[in-house]
Amino acid sequence: MFISISTTPYVMETKELGSLVRVSGKIGEFRERRQITIRELAIEEDVNFETQRWVEIIQLKLKFYDVPFVYPKGLVEEFFPTHDIDSNVIKEERKPATVASGELSEATFRRSMKEYIERKRFTSFHYGDIRAADELVKIARQVLLQQHQCTDPAPTQVSSLFSRGIKKLVKDGLLYVKDADADVYEVIHHEVNLGREVLHLIQHETRKHQENVHESTIITKIRSIKAFQNVPREVLLDSLKRLVDSGDLFQPENREYKLV
Question: Does domain 193-259 sit in CATH 3.90.76.10?
């Protein structure tokens, strides 16, 4: 049995299964999962290489990996003048960018995400655009600092918090997964798509039945559309009110609507 390894776009080199090889690469992250990207793979002819490498790894662990990292005091004072310094250990400030420390929670972070999306007037966005927003990253780090009492949240922890926040906004009907493969989300909002869809539905139902359309019918049929299946009742009622206020709809009876 053989494993094929592509070394160039035009040359295919084969390695026999069980061969001793040297591999170089790096640890990365894709879609919030750890992965190893291999840059080079070559046959190792020296049969002692594996044993020597194990000895080297053990020495690295004893001399470096297990030894706490200590910032040189002069370096800390030069580059981190706003941090408290105690025995060469940086104590990171806990004050968040936009919220009080007592209010820090995942719900706070989701609210900050929602406000950011509204302020930027997004109609749709890529997950990466939100994940890279500095003000949201700062709040996310502060939430994690309070949750886990750590000094430096890992990027994977920050990404997980963003992912949970996005999923909850989808579940709450404020976002819709427009393209799962590309991580693209559509904002559910009266001015973006909801108002237009409600108006179109009432127009269709009025022409079909030649009568007013009841509020319950509107809510049921709007929620039958995949993009709007999680939209809260109060959001739909607000959209109806806006359409009445704008003169697009008329409310002849309580909880019934028709086109103007």
Answer: no
Measured in degrees and rounded to the nearest 5, phi and psi for residue 248 equal: -80, -30
Query: Of the candidates 151, 140, 146, 132, which has an alpha carbon nearest to the alpha carbon of residue 80?
Result: 151
Handedness of CA 16, 17, 22, 28 (dihedral sign): positive
158: left (phi over 0), alpha (psi -120 to 50) or beta: alpha
Per residue in 67-123, pLDDT tens?
666 656 665 555 555 544 444 444 444 344 445 545 578 999 999 999 999 999 999
* The token pair that represents 78 in the structure block: 């030069």
User: Is 26 in contact with 14 (CB distance < 8 Å)?
Assistant: no
* Residue pair 243/199 in contact by the 8 Å Cβ criterion: yes
Per-residue pLDDT tens over the stretch 154-175: 888 899 999 999 999 999 999 9
CATH code, residues 106-187: 1.10.10.1080
DSSP state of 132: T
Same fold for the pair 106-187 and 193-259: yes
Whole-prediction pTM: 0.59
